[in-house]
Amino acid sequence: MKIGKWNVLFIAAVFVGLIVYTAKTDGLGNLLQAALSANPVWLAAAVGLMVVYWLLEGLSLHVAVKRFYPRQRYSTSFKTSMIGQFFNCVTPFASGGQPMQAYHMVKTGVPLGISSCALIVKFIVYQFILTIYSLVTLIFHFSMFSKSVSGLGYLVLAGFGVNLLVIAGLMCICFFGAGARKVVNAGIHLLAKMRLVKEKQVLQNKAKKEMDGFYEAFLAMQGNAWLILKMGLLSIVQLTAFFLIPYALYRSFGLSDASIFSIISAQAFVLNLTSFVPLPGAAGGAELGFHAMFAMFFPQQLLSISLALWRLITFYFPICAGMFFTALFIKEKPRLSKLEKEYELASGLEKCG
């Protein structure tokens, strides 16, 4: 998959803009002083939490693949996961991650049917856990944040609604497959009538293929309750690690008044807020969300540097790390011969189940 040059330029521009904004807001001298005053142990903890997030991401994918492909190694699953991190960050709506992960797994010997199924199972479990996690934080802390952050509360609810609709859509595909196909086909037909989409049949065939993939993954999940439970628990710990990164930054500046759960909730709200931002890395929306949500925790003089550090750790660090693994993959010699690869892609060989 090629990365659009405009995506790269946009990400670079946002990075430069973030640094310029931070320096202009607080002054370069104050910015450096604030950065140097941060406790390096807590900063290392913030970076470590991001690494834990990656390790658990790889482990969650690994248990799904290994269930249907016992020869899979964790190191390979981790590489696949990191390649996905890179393409998730540099493509709108994180749309490039899964295709590249499937491609990498096929290149390293995993049959196409199994790789696709494992990725879909992982997506369903992760999305379900994220929705439940977000619901819990909304129940306990939405009123507090909505009063403190005027207007953004509705955007958080809208983001949660997007995640809820995704889960509802997946459930409809799994339990009401025929009806879901009719609704999707009718929607595509309507868009074609309005001349908003071209090649109606091609789009309908693509939608059918995607829905069939989700249904096959659902069938695989039905007979593997223990697998789903393990992946669910891994996703909970994984999300918690990610949500704790702002807390580590908060403590790095010697702050301690806010509760851990309040900061976890704030980060969960930021993630919900950025669910519908159609830009690589939810650029712009993520920065705005963090600034608005965490203004109630960080003093004004530390808010900008905290935002910059958070974005470096949670967005630009994954890009750099993912780019490293992507570059390694490009240089690797595939395990499969060209003929074997073509056969795998053509037939899918094995199906999960």
Automatic annotation (TrEMBL):
Keywords: Antibiotic resistance, Cell membrane, Lipid metabolism, Membrane, Transferase, Transmembrane, Transmembrane helix
GO molecular function: phosphatidylglycerol lysyltransferase activity
Transmembrane stretches, start-end: 41-65, 112-140, 152-178, 225-249, 261-283, 303-330
UniProt record similarity statement: Belongs to the LPG synthase family.
Any Pfam family matching the protein: LPG_synthase_TM
Role this protein plays: Catalyzes the transfer of a lysyl group from L-lysyl-tRNA(Lys) to membrane-bound phosphatidylglycerol (PG), which produces lysylphosphatidylglycerol (LPG), a major component of the bacterial membrane with a positive net charge. LPG synthesis contributes to bacterial virulence as it is involved in the resistance mechanism against cationic antimicrobial peptides (CAMP) produces by the host's immune system (defensins, cathelicidins) and by the competing microorganisms.
Gene Ontology annotations for the cellular component aspect, listed alphabetically: plasma membrane
rRNA processing found in the keyword field: no
EC number: 2.3.2.3
Topology in membrane: Multi-pass membrane protein
Catalytic activity reported: L-lysyl-tRNA(Lys) + a 1,2-diacyl-sn-glycero-3-phospho-(1'-sn-glycerol) = a 1,2-diacyl-sn-glycero-3-phospho-1'-(3'-O-L-lysyl)-sn-glycerol + tRNA(Lys)
Localization in the cell: Cell membrane
Name under which the protein is recorded: Phosphatidylglycerol lysyltransferase
Keyword Cell membrane set for record: yes
One GO process term, biological-process aspect: response to antibiotic
Chief location: membrane
